[in-house]
Design a protein that fits this description.
The protein is an all-alpha fold. It is built from 5 helices and no strands.
Length: 95
């Protein structure tokens, strides 16, 4: 897979960790990776690999579809449509 195509899902992973009320060290241990590597993933400096994603799903009962990236693409498309609306192109007059 090309570098541009790798999934950068650090924000979603961090959200799972925070909802579980875990430190990076605690989650890293559960995922069988180092805390520094988890930090790199959370900051999108390393991709979320399939083995780590599988352990995440198994250990934290996470829906794998939340990490598919499809929701993000749809959100971007919706935002582009909204911000492309001509009403947003006209400056509003302040009262």
């Amino acid at each position: 897979m090309a570098r541009a195509e790798t999934l950068r899902l650090g924000t979603k992973l961090r959200s799972v960790r925070r909802k579980a009320d875990l430190t990076q060290a605690q989650m890293a241990k559960a995922l069988q990776i180092s805390p520094s590597y988890l930090n790199l993933i959370e900051n999108d400096r390393r991709p979320l690999t399939a083995p780590v994603l599988i352990r995440l799903v198994q250990e934290f009962d996470v829906d794998v579809h939340a990490f598919s990236g499809r929701g993000s693409k749809r959100l971007v498309a919706d935002l582009m449509e909204v911000f492309g609306d001509p009403l947003l192109q006209t400056p509003l007059e302040l009262c």
